[in-house]
Structure formats: C-alpha cells, structure tokens
Amino acid sequence: MPSLKEVKNRINSVNSTRKITSAMKMVASAKLHSAQKSIESMRPYESRLGRMMSTFVSTIDGDISSPYAVDRPVQRVALVVFTSNSSLCGGFNSNVVREMKRVVENYKENGVEVVDVYAFGKKGLEAVRKSGLSYQKGTEGSQLLDHPAYAPAAEIAQELMDRFATGEIDRVEIIYHHFKSAGSQILTREQFLPVRLDAGIENGIAAESEGGFLNDYIVEPSKEELIVKLIPKSLHLKLYTALLDSLASEHAARVIAMQVATDNADELLHDLTLQYNKTRQQAITAELLDIVGGSMQ
C-alpha cells in the first residue's frame, strides 16, 4: 500500500493536471464559439451559390464545357488533408490520418498514383512524412489554421485547379471533418476536382423555389459566361469552407476531450482522497493501538 506522502503527491499532481485540462477546455470553448459562428455564416452563402449553379445548368440548352469539369481516366491524384497544429483533441487527427492512409492504399491497389498531399496542419504533415508520401511544401497551413483567411485558401485552390487543367493531376479529393454540432463531427471525403455540374440536381438540392417552381433567372451577358465565372469561385469557396469546417470540428473535439479528461481527474481525485483518508485513519489507529498496548505492559 502506498504511503501517505505518495498518495498526497499523487493528489497534488492530479489536481494540477485537472487545472490545466479545465483551462484548456475554457480556451477551446471560446475558440469554438468563434469558429462555429464563422462556418455557420459561410454555409448559407455556399449553399445558395451551389443552388444558383444547379439552376443555370438545368436551364441551359446543350452541354457546358469547363476545364475543371473534364472527366478523364484517373492516373494521378492529389489529396487535401485537414488536421490540426496541436494535439489533445481526441481522435480528431488520428481519424483523418487513418482515412488518408486507407484512400492511398485503395488507389495503389487500383494502379493509381497519389502525386501530392496538401497537408493543412502540422499533425497531418508529420503523418505524411512518416508515410513516405510526396507532399506540397509550404502548404502545412500552420498560420492559415491559426488565422483563417479566404485569400490564402483560394490561392491553394487555384493551384490545384491549374494543375488539373494542365493534366498534371486527374482528380483532387478533400478529407476533413464536417462540423455538424458541438457534439458531432463527421469525417468526410469529397471530390474537389473534376467538379460535377449536375451534383446539385442529383442530390435533390436543385434550385427550386419555395413554391416548387424552377427559377429562371434573367442573366446578362449569358448563363454560359456566368457559369465560367461561378465555377472557379465555388471551388475557392469549397476549399475555404472545408477549412472552416475542420477548424470548428477541431475545437469541438478538444472541448469534448478536455471535458472528459477533467471528469476523469475529478473521479481520480475522489478515489485518491478516499484512499488518503483511509490510509491516514489506519495509521492513526495503528499508533493508538501501539500506545494502548505499551501502556498496558
């Protein structure tokens, strides 16, 4: 049985750890509030833009051609992976890394080469290096995760679009956590390129008005030219939205992880305090018995 001093030191150590986890939970909660506000403000804009594209595609006569919608045999793939810069967020990073490795293995089995990995977050970059995969230098996104901004994300999206348009890569996929709520983050794998112009209609989010009628916009100079402008903008916005989604999910996962750690620390403190009191009572009882036994001799 441990001595009173050992139990007391353990109590002090657990109490110090509990203060740290409680403080980290409060910090993560404040960051989650800001990140949640950002992603919830962005989603209606992205959703509306997608509905507009679906409406134009469904009302334009003939096929629409775009260098970002060319569907060709897949031989070279680029992955965009969103993780975090720091740990202590439960299985947030490990889930993304595990999915990334699974996707890479599936492509290898089908004879497809994963050309580059765009790893946002230091944890993702470390996993890519350990896996021996090729990664795009300067895209670890540590500063972008700390200070999310549209312009840097749009630059990376444009780089991917240019590489796809020139035929350097045949497909781009995104792996990230979709923020559903503070208690639920869904690991998501999405195709970024080639863009599917009819995806909105197939998924049941075709641009219908509340009355069930198909909106017919009056557009100048033409719907075709507007589509050419909308596709790059929607792709830039999609990558930025994935970034905001991942950030909100990271902070939510950290809040949950720190809450669980704090609860475990409280439970452990209760058990250690009980053990300390029992050990102390046993020591006092033993001393009393020694005193009583000595006085009777």
Provide an overview of this structure.
- By secondary structure, the chain is an alpha/beta fold.
- The chain contains 7 helices and 4 strands; from the N terminus they run H-E-H-E-H-H-H-E-E-H-H.
- The protein has a 4-stranded mixed beta sheet with strand order 2-1-3-4, with helices on both faces.
- Helix 2 links the parallel strand 1 and strand 2.
- About 4% of the residues have low confidence.
- Uncertain residue ranges: 200-211
Rg over CA atoms:
28 Å
Order of helices and strands: HEHEHHHEEHH
Sheet bearing the most strands, described? Answer: 4 strands, mixed
Which structural category do the helix and sheet elements fall into? alpha/beta
Query: What's the helical proportion of residues?
Result: 55-70%
Q: What's the rounded overall pLDDT mean?
A: 85
What percentage of amino acids are in beta strands?
Answer: 5-15%
Number of helices: 7
What separation lies between the terminal Cα atoms? 30 Å
What form results from the Cα inertia axes? elongated
In total, the number of strands is 4
Strand arrangement in the largest pleated sheet: 2-1-3-4
Features:
297 residues; 4-stranded mixed sheet; elongated; alpha/beta; 7 helices; 62% helix
